[in-house]
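Figure 3 (text version): structure tokens given as input.
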């Protein structure tokens, strides 16, 4: 479905019933990042809203991208869908949007999961920024410019976040570990988990791994969702059927 917010149309898909859970993807992706088994398990407890950010997926195209505008888009979406203090799970750019939203509107979000997010461009590892600059020089892609020049979220802004917050990152993430630790430390009462051996998105693209990392925080107990191992077996079964 399409929702008009902040002067544009955003595409989103809803699944399940219960309190709201908004899912926000990363740069260059769309809502299908969270498709399939993961959404089905979240939907056992939540009304899941998976969104295409502006200039992504089926949402409206824009000339210039700003994380602040994306945060306002989500605030408008929450109002348009009459979601009451939803939880928010954001990966990469989606995590940045979640930080901005929760700091600007502390009462709007009940829980926040930030996965591989950063508060400044220099939060990205140097080799990744160099690669992105090279690609931007060749392609002039607005999405690359966005990650090279934004965000700029202050410690004071992070300190304004009141929602219980889970900060996740891989030990081999493109986000510097020291940056992730500082980000989490600036959010009152946040929980930090650095996942050993994981890259920026490796565990996000494995439904069983992302569920295992977030289940306790999102209260996905045995009565609300199947275990990560059961999801893994389901995916294996579906893959074998396709062969």
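Below: residues designed for each position.
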């Amino acid at each position: 479905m399409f929702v008009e917010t902040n002067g544009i149309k955003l595409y989103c898909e809803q699944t399940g019933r219960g309190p709201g859970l908004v899912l926000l993807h990363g740069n260059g992706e769309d809502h299908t990042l969270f498709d399939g088994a993961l959404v089905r398990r979240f939907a056992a407890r939540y009304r899941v809203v998976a969104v295409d950010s502006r200039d992504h997926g089926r949402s409206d195209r824009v000339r210039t991208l700003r994380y602040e505008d994306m945060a306002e888009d989500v605030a408008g979406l929450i109002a348009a869908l009459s979601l009451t203090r939803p939880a928010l799970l954001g990966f990469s750019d989606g995590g940045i949007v979640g930080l901005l939203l929760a700091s600007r509107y502390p009462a709007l979000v009940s829980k926040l999961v930030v996965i591989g997010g950063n508060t400044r461009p220099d939060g990205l590892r140097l080799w990744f920024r160099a690669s992105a600059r090279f690609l931007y020089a060749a392609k002039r892609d607005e999405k690359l410019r966005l990650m090279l020049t934004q965000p700029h979220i202050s410690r004071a802004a992070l300190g304004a976040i009141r929602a219980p917050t889970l900060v996740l990152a891989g030990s081999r993430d493109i986000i510097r570990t020291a940056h992730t630790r500082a980000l989490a430390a600036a959010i009152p009462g946040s929980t930090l988990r650095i996942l050993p051996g994981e890259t920026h998105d490796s565990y996000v693209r494995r439904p069983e791994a992302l569920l295992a990392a977030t289940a306790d925080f999102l209260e996905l107990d045995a009565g609300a969702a199947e275990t990560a191992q059961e999801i893994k077996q389901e995916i294996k079964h579906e893959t074998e059927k396709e062969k």
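The first strand starts at residue 2 and ends at 5.
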